[in-house]
Amino acid sequence: MPTFGPVKRDVLIRCLHKCGFDGPYSGGNHPFMVKGNLALRIPNPHNKDIGKEFLTRILRQAGVSKEEWEKL
Known about the structure:
By secondary structure, the chain is of the alpha+beta class. Strands 1-2-3 form a three-stranded antiparallel β-sheet, with helices on one face. The mean pLDDT is about 90. The chain has helices spanning about 10-20, 50-60, 65-70, and strands spanning about 20-25, 30-35, 40. The chain contains three helices and three strands; from the N terminus they run αβββαα. Helix content is about 40%, strand content about 15%. About 15% of the residues are buried.
């Protein structure tokens, strides 16, 4: 279960897979993941953690609540 806070990119991708997203696919400047008609851009790998504020924005776009995230 990931805590709601800074996470590594691979943890984010693994959890988005559990939420039903496919990918990541390369496209333009940023890779993206797809679920139905929703395409979600994910950050490039730079060996940095994804901060809490950025994680909040990504999950809001993905339609995943904080509670759902912590249950994964």
